[in-house]
Amino acid sequence: MLKKNLLTVCCFLLYAACLCQVKGLQYYTENAVQNSPLIKEYNNQAISNTIDSLLIRAALKPQVTGSSINSYAPVIKDIGYDGAITNGGNFSALVGINKQLGNKKNLYAQFENIAILNESLRNNISITIQDLKRNIIAQYITTYGDEQQLNFSKEINTLLTREEIILKKLTQGNVYKQVDYLTFLVTLEQQQLSIKQNAIQFKNDVALLNYLSGITDTNAVSLANPAIVINEQTDAVHSIFSKQYTLDSLQLENKKKLADVNYRPKINVYADAGFNSTLAYQPYKNFGTSAGLSLIVPIYDGKQKKLQYRKIDTEEKTRQSKKDFFEHQYNQQTMQLTQQLQATEDLLRDINQQLKYTQSLIDVNGKLLEAGEARITDYILALNNYINGKNLITQNNITRLQIINQLNYRSR
To answer: What pTM does this model have?
Structure first.
C-alpha cells in the first residue's frame, strides 16, 4: 500500500513539474515597469509640462478679444439718471488686441523652469525603475530560495523513501529492531511535512511576486536561476540619486531669475476697433479705432525681492546639507555591503567544504545501513547534519544574492 501511495505521489509531482512554466527574472521586472502606475503618472506629467510650455508661448502672442457693452438709461417726465453721466445709454461692439513687449527674459526663465521639471521627471522615472527592480529582484531571490528549499526537501524525501524500502525488509528479517524502523519512519514523515510546508511558502511568495509585478496569474511556475552579478559601481556624486540634488539647485537658481523678472518694467501695447455710441446723434458715424501703450515700473514693495532671495538661500543650505549627508551615507553603506558580501562568500566556501565530508558520511552510512551494519540513529544524525548544511548554503546564497541586489541598486 505504501509503495502504491509513493508511486502515486511521484507521478503527480512529475505531472505537476511538466505543467510548470519556467519564468525568469526579466519577465517579472519588465512587467513591473510596464504596469507601474507611478511611471505612467510621471510620463503624463511630462506631457502636461510640454503643454504648459505651449500655453506660455500662446500667452505671449497678441491677444485678440471681442467685447460688447450695451446700456439704456431712460428719462421719463424728467425723472431718471443724469444724462451728463449716462448719455442716455451706451452701445459698443469692439475688437481689441493686446501684447506685452520686452518679455524675452521672462519667457526664457519659464522655459528653463519647465526644462528642469522635465529633467527631474526623467530622473524620477529612472529612480522608480531602480526601486521597482530592486523590490522585484529581492522578492524573486526569496521565492527562488523557497523553490530551492522545496526541491532539496524532495530529494531528501526520495532518498529516505528508497532507504525505507530496504530498511523495512531488513527489519522483517530481524536485522534491525522494530523501534529503529519506527524511528526512521518518523524522520520520513517529518520530511514529508517539510515538503508541504515548503510548497505552501513557495506558492505564497510566488503570489506576492506576481502582485508586486502587476501580474494576474495563478498557474504553477518554476523560477530560473537569477544569475545576477555585481555591476560596475557608481560613486555617490554621479548616481541618479545625487542628480536630484543638482536639479534642485538649478531649480532654486531659476527661482531667483523668475523673481528678477517680476521686477522688470512691463510694457503693453493695445488697440481696438469697432462701434461705440450713445445713439444720441448720427450713430452711423460712431465707428472708429483707438490705440495706446501702458507702462508699469516697480518702485517699492517692502523689500519683497530681498526676502525672496533670503528664502531661496535658506532652501539652498538645506539642499546642500541633505546632499552632503546622502553622499556620506551612500559611501558608508556601499562599503558595508561590500564587506558583508565578502564575509558571506567566505562562509559559503567553508560550509561547502564541510558539506563534502557530511555527504561522504551519509554515503558510507547509507551503504552500511543497507548491509545491516550501521545504527539507524547514526544515519539519521548524519542526515540531519547534511540537511542543516544544505539549508545553510541555501540561506547564505540567498543572502549573497540579496547583497548583490542592494549593490546593483546603487550602480546607476
So the answer is: 0.82
Encode pLDDT of 18-70 as tens digits.
456 888 999 999 999 999 999 999 999 999 988 988 888 887 788 888 888 88
pLDDT tens digits, 257-294 = 888 877 888 888 888 888 877 777 777 778 888 888 88
Domains and CATH numbers, the chain: 2-35+119-263+303-409 (1.20.1600.10)
Sheet holding 287-296, edge to edge: 63-72, 89-101, 266-277, 287-296
Neighbouring CB atoms inside 10 A of 312's CB total 16
Paired with 273 in beta bridges are 95, 289
Nearest Cα to Cα of residue 142 among 82, 80, 205, 192: 205
What residue type is 22 in one-letter code?
V
Cβ partners under 8 Å of residue 43, min gap 6: 121, 125
**Alpha-carbon separation of residue 251 from 4, 113, 123, 311 (angstroms):** 74, 7, 14, 13
90 beta partners: 71
